[in-house]
Structures are given as structure tokens and as C-alpha cells.
């Protein structure tokens, strides 16, 4: 990065990005000469580099991010007051020919971590015992059972803890409908997850999401033994107190079995890294997201898997992902998911322009296309090998896309249910997200945030603004991913975050 207070990201761009807050009247040097700033420009915000007429497109990252709603002169602030989102067909190929798609090669295992090899061949990065609640009516019982085991690691040092995964649904669903199927897929995904050594299922007894049929449909078994997991029905056991006692007894029998697990040396190819962003700002697409993308590229080259998601936050950038699809069928699957979302939003009186959020806008992001173009940088540059449904099992190695909402807890819940055993979460405004049973690394897009929220941030990607190469920060991220996968605690784990963020996607009617 240059010493200039403004960044130019691409030759085609019409805007520059402020590295620091710049008062009105400041004169900045550009390739086209000195430009006095007409207004104060906030850190991460855009200033016009070229004059644009009303209705003309504005480019950032070499791509169109919106149309002018008024004439814009050099030195003026470009934001929501003079720029609007617009839906239009994208025909462009990736704009920067220097960022070519990296070819996949058969990797030799050269990076390793210490993980838990499970009987199905997958590898865990943590070793939890879980309580899976089928319905909100059993949430309180589940929490009280969990509370009984607060100090479990004292007696079972190889167990990371007992967690209660509760939610707000499970009944009031159309039996056999989309929401019922999705909830079962999520619960089964967590039951099978390599970070969960053993589990019990707790329900009320009369809910739509019945535990026993779910266990049969999804072949749930205890420690992959073929034996059904303990299922506790509050009604069947005679009420709250008796159900709590029965669940505590069941978990007490599981803990010694879970404690037998030991970490062994595993190849980085056993990692499935979920990527997500929340509270993005104007720097996210310059620092944290491309740095994570660099780590993703290296992980894929090592034979691992990385997953991009948040379909409502790829609008306006989906053409770049489709251009990377390894087959027409994969590109078509992504287009189908984008089309589904547009129809779904229209049905509910919304559109793609309902994003970005107030926090995003305060951080300098003006339109969904601008947010999306910065967001997809998390996915690196390697070929897109598969597109999967929400909470569907991720089976292909390489760069994968999962269809999820943009809302962080719902998105990551689907990614974990799909098998992700690590999460990297970028943020510019600040997020305190956690995702038990999977560790979540927080990547700050700017150094001010990293310092301000040091108890929550794991890696400072803002150093890119000071000249540290994106690739170097990407290597730091991958190093930390491997360390955390081996047992190092993330900031969110140290703060006890991650259970309340379990939030399966419910998109249909509540009856």
C-alpha cells in the first residue's frame, strides 16, 4: 500500500477509498492532479476520483456497484445519498486478469494439525458431548442438564464440554414440509458432526419434529455403534424433573466414552473451513476478505475444503463465482439458488437492495453489489467445485458454495451442519460471534477495531493498509487455523460464546 491517504483498487475505478478520516478541504494528490475534498470523508468511505453524470455507473473493484442519482464531481463523497443499487445482467468475466484461477493439483500433505479421527473417517477439531433439543419446549430442560456439567473437563480432560443446542422451532411446522426437513437435516448434521463425540436428544413428546423418526430417517447412532442415541421425552419420563434426571444419567454414561478420544496428527486436507462475514465495512473487501481468500487458496492447494455462503450477499457478484465454476452444471446450480432467492424476497415484499445493513453503511458500504464484491473475496480464486443446499453434507474437496441466508447465526449453523470443522469470520464493525462445537476465528478488517475489541478479535488484517502484503496475512490466517484446529482456544471460546448462536433456518409459515 502507498503512503497516500486514499486507495485506488483497480484501474477502472471511479472512486478512491479513504484509509483514515479526511476533513473537508483536504487536498489529496491523485493521478489526475490535486483534488480538494468537498466534504469530510470517513475512514473506509469513498471519494469521487472521476466526474460522473446522473445515471452513469460507478465502479469499485473494477466492477459496477451502482448508478449515480445526481451528478458527482471529483472530491465529493460517494455514498447512499448519490448512489443507488441497480439490478442488471452481468456479462463480465473476472475484471483483473492478474488474479487468475489457480489450477488444482494433487497435493502432498505438507501441513498438519492435531485432530480427532472419527470412525467415519472425518476429523474433529474439538471433542464435545451435545444435548440436541428437538423443540423449543425442551430448551429449558436442555439448559438445566447442560448446567449440571459446567465443570466436566475437570474429571474428563479430553472432553471440551457439554453443550446444549436449543432453538425456537420444532413445532408449529408443516409436518414433512420444508422447515421440518431442514430442521431434521440440521440436527442430524450436528449429531454426525466430527466435533461431537456423543449426544443425547431431548424433546417434549408431542411436537412435529419427533426424535425417534428423525433418528431412523437419518441413521443416528451412538458413537457410530449402530445403537440408537439416548432419546429423552419430557412427557414420557413424567415431567421436567424426571427428564432432567434421565438426561444427566445418560450423559454421565457417555462422558467416559467420549474421554477416550485422543488427538492425532492429521493432514490439512481433513479441514473443512467455513467462511463468513458480519458487520462488514469499507475495508472488509480490501483487507480481511482477500487475506482470508489467500488462506482459502492455500488450504485448497493442500487438498482441503473451503466453503463460501450467504447468498443474499453475493447479489451483483454472482457472475464472478459462476465464471469460476468447474462445469456448466455447477454454475447452473448457483444461478438457480440466486433466482430462488430473488423470487423468495419478492414474495415477502423485499428485494436485493434491502441489503446492506445500517452498520455496513456507516462503515462506508453503499450498495449490495459493493458489499457482495468485497464479500466474495473470502472465497479466494480456485475453481468452484460444488454448490450444496443449506445444511447439506459437504463431500467434495476444494472450493464449495453453500446456499444460506446472510444472517450470521443462521448461515454458520448450516455450514456446521454440513460438516465444517473450522470457521473464519471477518468483521469490520465488530462481531462477538461464536459457533460451538466449531471454533470460530475473528478477523478484523482494520487495526482500530482490533485494538478496540481485543478481547474478541483473533487476527488484525488491518495491517494490509499499512503495507503488509495480503498473501502474508493469508499465511498468518492459515497458521492460526491449524493452531486452533489443534486445540488452541479462540477469543470467542475463551469468552464462552457459541451455544446461543445455534439457529436453524426456518423460512416457512408457523402454524
TrEMBL record:
Keywords: Lyase
Organism: Pendulispora rubella
InterPro entries according to UniProt: GD_AH_C (IPR048332), GD_AH_second (IPR007392), SAF (IPR013974), SAF_UxaA/GarD (IPR044144), UxaA_altronate/galactarate_dh (IPR052172)
Protein name, UniProt field: Altronate dehydratase family protein
Domain of life of the native organism: Bacteria
SAF domain segment(s): 13-84
Similarity comment: family membership: Belongs to the UxaA family.
Gene3D superfamilies: 2.30.130.110
SMART domains referenced in this protein's UniProt entry, alphabetically: SAF
